[in-house]
Amino acid sequence: MKKNISAPFCLLCLLSLPLLFSSCLKDDCRHTYKITVPVYTKLSALRASLQSKAPQSINSTGKLYIAGNRIYLNEPGKGIHVIDNSHPDHPVQTAFINIPGNVDMYLRGNILYADMYCDLAAIDVSNPSGISVKKFLTKIFPDKAAYGTSTNPDSVNVITNWITKDTMVSCTGNGGVYPVGGGLAMSNTGTSLTKAVSGAAGSMARFAAVNDYMYTVSTSILNVININEAGNPLFVQNKSIGWNIETIFPYNNKLYLGAGTSMSVYDLQNPVDPQQLSWTGHWCSGDPVVADDNYAYVTLHAANICNSVVNQLEIYNLNTSSQSPTLVKTYPLTNPQGLSKDGNLLFICDGKDGLKIFDASTVTGLKMIKQFSGMETYDVIAYNGIAYLVAKDGLYQYDYSNTGDIKLLSKLTK
Amino acid sequence: MIKTIAIAIQAFFICSCLSAQNAVPSGKWKFNSANQVGLLQGEAHTAFSLQSVNGLRRGNFFGGFGTGIDYYRYRSIPLFAACRKYFGRSPNQFYVYGDAGINFVWQERSTSLYGAKETYHPGFYGGAGIGYKAGLKNGMGILLSAGYTYKKVINVQQEISSCPFMGPCILSPETYRYNLNRLIFQLGWLF
User: Fold this and answer.
1) What DSSP line would sit under A210-246, residue for residue?
2) Cβ contacts (< 8 Å) between B166 and chain A: which residues?
3) How far, in Å, CA of A265 to CA of A322, rounded?
């Protein structure tokens, strides 16, 4: 009997022994993620590097500007390819203008306005091989410069690169099971179709001009710049215009702004202080916009910006009794990007589906009359019978002077 | 927790006293299946577990494979190799055990409204401890054990951040590696 009592007691003690150490057991969690740190460059050093260079191969394509016989094609972050287009069936690269951080551009006469990180540069391009910088406007795009009040180019630091590093820390709080936040949304990019005094820009442009004023948009700011004296641009003012602004398109003394979730129209009766006329919301998506006398055409493409899946063309009636445009019709597309309209022809870059050309004489019954595929398209300018198409692999030109026989004229690819 | 274990051990000994006293066969391979319920005690909380270990016994050695379900912090399915060493020749025996294998998290894969994707990857699973087998008829028995067990959970969360037009798309994968240390108390049936 004594044995039977002592055995369970011993076993109980033995098996309970680990409980003495239970408080020693700790859960451990390691959180690994990437951090991105900026690389700064002095603004003065960047300005010194703005110069003409010999023609270079096109490695990546961005925005486009057409002026006379010249095509200005942006290479994002690097500069602008200058292309002599005297013979559209045989374009020739004549120079490359090295402009670090450049994404957008606009041309007035021989003066090219280009962004260079936080600066706006006014460049005389009458001789593309020997450009001269007329003026810099500093911190026009402040989101691309480090914080600080100085405008001295030797004191202004510009973020020119990012370095990513792996980092590991101990988890905190509830053990680290959170929806992750963050990532870095680079500002800038974008474009718009602007038939201006001296040329045409694409629908993805962020620079546009009406008469003596140029307007530029960043994600939430509209800048007004007086370009009456082309070589001496003067900053007038900037105003807050919402958020996630992507494109600007001037038409009929109005500005059409495409944003991630809306299209808004600004009136230019007072050109130094544009006033909002209307705001029309839509699905969260990337959305360049063009307009004619009666309708605005907006392409929405699925973008990671809000995990949207909407890919369509939306057509809005601008001649409504109320000030807000009203939606007329939507057309499903694959991944529409830039678009352009000339007469009754509507050109739409539909991503990997290529270029689609529609007869838009009746907006409620668009008819596709031609499709060119085989390239991933980004933006298009239809101007004077030639469609200038920016695709991922280069610049294409199509002759649409005969709508029954739209044909490829040339391609300038990587 | 201690009260629960004490009650389980008392019940275990009542069964043990009533059990038949069969000798342990030696030199022959014999299939064994041990099926246990358990309590996991860790820093975070107390959780429930189930295990089934199946294999062959020869003399005082046992080797096999096990699986189960483990509800500590992340519900998971461990798959592991198991070994045991029994002591003595009577039907009632102490034993030590060791397990090693892989832990698979059994969670729903989720995607948030904002594009965050959450995935789990397999991690190491292991454990060791001591136990007591109260022998019953025909080689069956009741098992009581205590020990330490570890499981690793690897959770990767990835968010797709803003990617307007031709701007850079930045994916920000974040990895959480959990090292979960627990005590385990198990009661089971051996046949």
Assistant:
1) ETTEEEEE-SSEEEEEE-SSTTS-EEEEEEE--S-EE
2) 62, 76, 189, 378
3) 13
- Asked if the Cβ–Cβ distance from B155 to A188 is below 8 Å, we say no
Output the CA torsion sign for A167, A171, A177, A179.
Answer: negative
Q: What's residue A116's pLDDT?
A: 93
To the nearest whole angstrom, how far is the Cα of A218 from the nearest Cα of chain B?
A: 12
Say if residue A28's pLDDT is above 70.
Answer: yes
What pLDDT sits at residue A181? 30
What backbone phi and psi angles, to 5 degrees, belong to A5?
-80, -40
Q: Which two tokens stand for residue B12?
A: 């275990």
Q: Between chains, do B164 and A180 touch, taking CB under 8 Å as contact?
A: no
Q: How confident is the model at residue A67 (pLDDT cuts 50, 70, 90)?
A: very high
Query: How confident is the model over A130-152, as pLDDT tens digits?
Result: 999 999 998 888 777 666 677 78
Residues A245 and A305: their CA atoms lie apart, in Å, by: 12
Angle between helices A2-16 and B2-18 (to 10 degrees): 140
Rounded to whole angstroms, how far apart are CA atoms B119 and B106?
10
ipTM value of the model?
A: 0.75
Token representation of residue B159: 């968010």
**pTM assigned to the model:** 0.66
